[in-house]
DNA sequence: TACTAAGTGGGTACAGTGTTCCCAAGACGG
DNA sequence: CCGTCTTGGGAACACTGTACCCACTTAGTA
């Protein structure tokens, strides 16, 4: 356990002698780069080049690549303005969920970079505060409120991850979903359909309609909220 | 769009001339390594050493590290035996959810490695078939069944990710959750509590009880299932 | 049985990665 | 105006995935 443990956020407040750059600039550059070209393009060298500085100079502003990512995560969560809670907890939690999803979709690297230990940055805290306010509309029991908020957050996280990794697959394989399906269809026909080993998978492939991601997300969120309503009404 | 596109699973069936190793052995070694030392220790060189072979020899069995991961994902999903669906869809979906969670907890790298395009390996297909059977107990509409299954899967994925990344944080920082809390408590006191900017976060920190991961997971799953029940009963 | 072709194991090498170590140059307090 | 501290940033290191190549073993054929 390191004794010289200092949080990023305290160090941010300290002002420094001179600055050719600022942490904010670096973070902004990194976000722009990751948005445009994905996580794999986010190297310290690329960030430095994009920021017009030397690679190792970045380490004057940021101790780690991990720390840079932590700053990026918080910065991005500050893009959204949260309204004052309406008091209708279902509507408020929907705002939270939609907002989280929108942010993660806008910054495709965010979902995979989210860690559990709550980011203690100002923006993440503001979001957490609004989310807790929304959940607080459903119950006064703060333990229950934070449990049900966790449920919503977990669902949103999982749903967005599924949505994003489909996108990511399209990018990495260079095939759209339909192209991929037709490419694997001979294998699918032989192994899944003709073998008869996976009857419901087969039926699913043939008969199920594809919901759009919006529909799938809304359906799942509706389930979660309905379940919460029931567990709160007790 | 590559024309020479061949699935891993077809290539696996082809038998080869001689084999000092087998794909199965390599995959098993890789899984053991990743389980024990985490994703960051999973390098081709380590796998090769552990398997007692040269690094580049692995590429005779596996075209990519990504492909190795895909094989690992499927292999791990074959550890669990699925029962025959009981017909009680709530119980069956609970079995699915608990099983997915248990597998992901046993292999901490799995959750972050899951991709959306369904793994077409035999084990993943068997799991999907059971899961669809479970969901099919709730409704005959296959589109609805697969939507609600997706909701469960998304929730489970998100919940386990939260659970795992907490563990991962403990490993990477070398501090337990409690140690970390007391380490950041001065900052928390100043920025969150005393500033008064985040009243519900403050209240949460002081008053909320910590649910165990089992409790949190069960609570969330209960919400999801209750919501599904309502959306199906319509 | 001898020869050829193909497939296998694996060393070397390369382009990149995050990060540490240094040093020169500039900014600040006295 | 000087000495000290802080910056910017180049060189270098340990490490990654993997393409290329070569010697060698095997399988099939003459």
TrEMBL record, chains A, B:
SUPFAM superfamilies, alphabetized: Homeodomain-like (SSF46689), Tetracyclin repressor-like, C-terminal domain (SSF48498)
Any one GO biological process: negative regulation of DNA-templated transcription
Coiled coil feature spans: none
Keywords, in A-Z order: DNA-binding, Transcription, Transcription regulation
Residues within the DNA-binding region(s): 43-62
InterPro entries per record: Homeodomain-like_sf (IPR009057), HTH-type_TetR-like_transc_reg (IPR050109), HTH_TetR (IPR001647), Repressor_TetR_C (IPR004111), Tet_transcr_reg_TetR-rel_C_sf (IPR036271)
Gene3D superfamilies attached to this UniProt entry: Homeodomain-like, Tetracycline Repressor, domain 2
Name of protein: Regulatory TetR family protein
Organism (species): Kutzneria buriramensis
């Amino acid at each position: 356990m390191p004794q010289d443990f200092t949080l990023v956020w305290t160090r941010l407040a300290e002002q420094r002698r001179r600055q050719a750059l600022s942490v904010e600039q670096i973070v902004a550059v990194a976000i722009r780069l990751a948005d445009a070209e994905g996580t794999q393009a986010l190297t310290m060298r690329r960030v430095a080049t994009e920021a017009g500085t030397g690679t190792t100079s970045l380490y004057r502003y940021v101790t780690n690549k991990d720390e840079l990512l932590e700053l990026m995560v918080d910065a991005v969560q500050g893009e959204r303005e949260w309204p004052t809670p309406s008091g209708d907890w279902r509507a408020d939690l929907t705002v939270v969920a939609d907002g989280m999803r929108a942010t993660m979709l806008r910054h495709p690297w965010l979902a995979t970079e989210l860690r559990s230990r709550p980011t203690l940055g100002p923006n993440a805290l503001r979001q957490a505060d609004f989310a807790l306010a929304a959940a607080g509309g459903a119950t006064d029991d703060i333990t229950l409120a934070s449990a049900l908020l966790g449920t919503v957050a977990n669902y949103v996280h999982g749903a967005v991850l599924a949505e994003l990794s489909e996108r990511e697959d399209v990018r990495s394989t260079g095939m759209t979903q339909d192209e991929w399906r037709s490419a694997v269809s001979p294998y699918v026909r032989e192994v899944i359909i003709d073998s008869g080993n996976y009857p419901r998978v087969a039926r699913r492939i043939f008969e199920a309609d594809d919901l759009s991601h919006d529909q799938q997300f809304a359906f799942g969120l509706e389930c979660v909220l309905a379940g919460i309503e029931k567990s709160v009404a007790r």
